[in-house]
Amino acid sequence: MSTWRTNIREVTPYTPGEQPNKENMIKLNTNENPYPPSPMVEAGGKEMEDWRLYPDPSVTKLVHALAQYHGLLDEQVFVGVGSDDVLAMSFLTFFNSDKPILFPDITYSFYDVWAELYKIPYKRVPLTEQFRLVKEDYQQENGGIVFPNPNAPTGILEPVSFVEDIVRGNPDSVVIVDEAYIDFGGETCLNLIHRYENLLVVRTYSKSRSLAGLRVGYCMGNKELIEALNNVKQSYNSYTMNQAAIALGTASLKDEDYFREHVAKIISTREWVGEELRKLHFSFAPSSANFLFITHERVKAKDIFEMLKEQDIYVRYFDKPRIDNYLRVTIGTDEQMQQFIDALKRYLNVK
Ligand SMILES: *Cc1c(COP(=O)(O)O)cnc(C)c1O
Q: CA-CA distances (angstroms) from residue 24 to 27, 313, 336, 339?
C-alpha cells in the first residue's frame, strides 16, 4: 500500500439520526424541539452591521450573557459550535492521560468516536440491567470521566449527590457532565463547580432552546479549566462562533418566559404520552428529558420502527447490544404525539 494511505487517520464517524425532509412527516428521531425559538431571537439578527468583520474570537458578548444568566463570572464560561464542539474541545484539552477515560456502555454515541479520533484510551462502564449508573464503578483508575445527566438515550436522571460522589472520588481527573437535557425537569449539578475544580458542566441550545440549527453550546467550570479550553480552541480555529450565532444566541437568553413555558409544555406532553404508552403495554423508565426510551412487551422495536417510518413518523432505533429492542421517541407537539399514539394503536390491535 502507498505510504500516504497508511498515514491516513481512519475513523468510523458518528451516525446522526436521519434528517429526512418530507412534507407532513412527524420527526421524533433527533430530540429537536417541536416549537419555534422565541420571537426575540429574530430581533437579535437585526444588528448586521458587524457581520462584515471577523467575529470576536473570545465571544465576549455571548460568554458574558451566559455568565450573567447563570450567576457566574465570564471566566467560568466557554462557548462552542453546539455542545458537540464543546465536548470535542474538552476531550482534546482534558483527556491526555495514558489511563482510559470512562463512560457508560449505553450513552451518547459520540464519546467513543472522539476518543477514537484523538486516540484516547477508553473503557465503557456497564450500566445496571435497569440502565442505572453505578458510582462505585467510577472509582477505578482513569484518565477522565464523561457522562450525560440525564443519560441518553435512556432519559434517566441521577441526583446531584450521586454526581457529587463521582466528582469528589476522582480529584485527579476532569469529570464532564453533559447536561444536554437538564432543562426538562432535572436538577443541575452546576453549583458543584464552586466546590470542585475538576468538574465541567456542558449545556446546549439545541434541545430546550429550539435552536439545534444555530449550533450553540457551552460549558461552565472553574476558570483554570475554561482558560485551558480557550487555549486549545485558539490553537485550532479562532473563529468557530459566527456573528449570527453570537447575536441570536445572546438574544435567546432574554426571553425567559417563553423558555419556561415551552419546556413545561414538553414535560406535560411527555407525561400524557407516557400514560398512553403504558396502556399499550410499553414500558420505560421515568424520563427527565424530551424523549422516552420505550420497549414493548410483545412486539419488536425494529418492527414498530419500520411500521412508523412507512407512515412518515420517524423515531430512533439503535441496532446495538442491550438496546436493540428499544425506541427513543422525541416528545413533539400534542398533535404529533396523538398521531404517533394512533399509529401504534392501529398496529398493535391487529398484531
Ligand atoms: C444532542 C446532544 C448533544 C449535542 O448537541 P449539540 O446540538 O451539538 O449542542 C450532546 N450530548 C448529548 C447527550 C446530546 O443528546
A: 9, 9, 10, 11
Give ligand 1 pocket residues (Cβ under 6 A). 31, 82-84, 108, 148, 152, 178, 180, 204, 206, 212, 217
Grid cell of 123 as nine digits: 473503557
pTM: 0.97
Cα 290 to ligand 1 centre (Å):
12
Cβ atoms 150, 289 nearer than 8 A: yes
CATH architecture of structural domain 39-252: 3-Layer(aba) Sandwich (3.40)
Helical (H) or strand (E) element with 200:
strand 199-204
Counting ligand 1 atoms within 8 A of each CB, the residue from 107, 178, 179 with the most, and so the one to mutate, is 178
pLDDT digits (tens, 9 = 90+) for 212-266: 999 999 999 999 999 999 999 999 999 999 999 999 999 999 999 999 999 999 9
Condensed to tens digits (0 to 9), the pLDDT of residues 202-214 reads 999 999 999 999 9
Closest atom of ligand 1 to 83 CA is 9
Q: What is the CATH number of domain 18-36+256-348?
A: 3.90.1150.10
